[in-house]
Amino acid sequence: MLPIKTILHATDFSGRSHSAFRLACALARDYKARLIVLHILPTPVVGYPEGIILTQPEEYRAEARTKLQQMQPTDPSIALERMLGDGDAATTIVDTAKDKACDLIVMGTHGWGGLTRLLMGSVAEAVVRRAPCPVLTVKTPFAQAEHVATENQAAEHKMPEPVAV
After folding, report:
1. Among 35, 84, 143, 164, which is least packed, fewest CB within 10 Å?
2. Could you tell me the pTM of the whole model?
């Protein structure tokens, strides 16, 4: 069994990230691991005639901090650390995983393919390629997956309707 002591969950606060967070919490609980939740603010570029200024308005940082604080583990015994990073998401995730000696990265993915992925890039794909540890990507929100599984199980065990003769 893979020894897991520290799990990194990278979040963009989307539904897919929330599903990945729930999975990360379950793994942290089961392995009695520390859970680090990381959100990365992209570096905004503001152009002026005098040049380009890289800045991050404080209200964006404050909003992200608030959202991070609202993320509560499913089990209160989970040791949770919240981090706010800046810059390129994939690079920051990989660097944090190295700096914090993470044993696993859990993150959501949009599941884009084809031209969209080519043009927009994929943070999850870049993390998978460069990460110092295993990466678990979550594509389908669990609530949706559980609903589909429940419907499939019900259909498999459903008694046939009586037929009038």
Report:
1. 164
2. 0.75
